[in-house]
Design goal:
Layout (H helix, E strand, L loop, with lengths): L1 H16 L2 E3 L4 E4 L2 E2 L8 E3 L2 E5 H4 L6 E5 L4 E6 L2 E6 L3 E5 L5 E2 L8 E3 L2 E5 H5 L5 E5 L4 E5 L1 H17 L8 E6 L4 E6 L9 H23 L3 H6 L17 H12 L10 H20 L4 H32 L4 H4 L10
Parallel strand pairs: 2-14
Antiparallel strand pairs: 1-4, 2-3, 4-5, 5-12, 6-7, 7-8, 8-9, 9-10, 11-12, 13-14, 15-16
Length: about 350
């Protein structure tokens, strides 16, 4: 029986570690220069490249502080603050105070006495571009400064060739195709149709009202839902009048997207479902503090995922239709579910 237990334990251990392995063949380039990993090699975790904390992120302009007691780190620089631990990644814009969507499908973890972070997820919070060449096993990172330089050089080249007019073009980079598209900045609406514009303005307005309601009423459940009040302690249900929020959810659900924004509306509906669930949990009076805390934290993680999907769908729509969204809707509309 002991031998069987030992074998079973070895099998389980093998299964648990099957998706984590060091890969010295993986190369990482930063702005065209190969980075060296003298002490700890990158690891592949669930098809994601993980790198030691200080190996790359200081080169991306982050100041890093490590808290051994909480096993967490704070990265600050390039206009963002990123809190990382083995249970979450939370990024905020220093300018707006709004949360930046981050892919948390693979979380930081401590391996071989080193704190490893998912390279792409953290790097992209700075505006860096991260590429992967599967054949060469090469991760390539381009800093915002290099991307800006390349865009200006490309724009200059196109102006000199007569393909675009000087001083009226704006470059927008598509991560899907790595293609630089150029639009006339005198027409920031691009191919935006009136029905789509009306829909999006209504969405952004009502999402903003929900966010403002949370702050104005100091609603601790909604604040935690939005990532504005992360604590390690429990929170209790706060029974209050959430009818205004329910009305805003109903108004969002009743909106009719235009022909080009139909792919965005499902994310809006998913978001309203989470807000409704939060309000119901607050007002039910049946949940204990631990149950309520777990419920809100689960909803907060789900909101973060929905926000990422929403931002990506919006970004794809704006790029495909040549819409300079900062000029039309405001700089932070991609973050409007945060």
């Amino acid at each position: 029986m002991k031998i069987k237990n030992i074998l079973l334990g070895l099998c389980l251990s093998s299964m648990l570690t099957a998706n984590i392995y060091a890969d010295s063949a993986v190369k990482v380039e930063f702005d065209g220069k190969t980075l060296e990993f003298p002490d700890a090699q990158p690891k592949i975790v669930d098809s994601r490249t993980m790198v030691p904390l200080r190996s790359i992120f200081e080169k991306l302009g982050f100041g890093i502080s490590w808290d051994a007691n909480t096993r967490s780190a704070l990265l600050s620089g390039n206009g963002v603050r990123v809190q990382v631990s083995e249970s979450d990644i939370i990024a905020f814009s220093k300018a707006s105070g709004l949360e930046i969507p981050v892919d948390t499908s693979v979380l930081p973890r401590i391996m071989d006495d080193r704190f490893y972070l998912p390279l792409r997820a953290i790097a992209q919070t700075t505006g860096a571009q991260v590429g992967w060449d599967a054949d060469a096993k090469l991760v390539s990172i381009k800093s915002p400064a290099l991307l800006d330089k390349e865009a200006k050089e490309k724009e200059k080249e196109l102006i000199e060739s007569g393909k675009i007019k000087g001083d009226t073009s704006v470059s927008v980079k598509s991560e899907e195709t790595d293609e630089l598209k150029y639009y006339d900045s005198t027409d920031p609406t691009g191919l935006l149709k009136p029905s789509d514009e009306k829909y999006l303005k209504s969405v952004f307005d009502k999402l903003g009202l929900i966010h403002s309601w949370a702050i104005e009423h100091d609603d601790h459940a909604l604040m935690r839902f939005y990532g504005m009040a992360y604590t390690d302690g429990e929170i209790s249900p706060n029974i209050s009048d959430h009818s205004e929020l329910m009305t805003l959810c109903a108004e969002l659900e009743a909106l009719k997207p235009g022909s080009e924004t139909s792919s965005i509306h499902p994310h809006v509906l998913n978001f309203t479902l989470k807000v409704r669930s939060l309000c119901t949990s607050c007002d039910s009076g049946t949940l204990t503090a631990p149950q309520f805390t777990e419920k809100i934290d689960t909803l907060a993680k789900e909101r973060k995922t929905i926000s990422i999907d929403f931002a990506r769908a919006l970004n794809d729509y704006f790029i495909q239709n040549g819409v300079l969204y900062e000029s039309v809707f405001g700089e932070y509309v991609l973050d409007s579910m945060n």
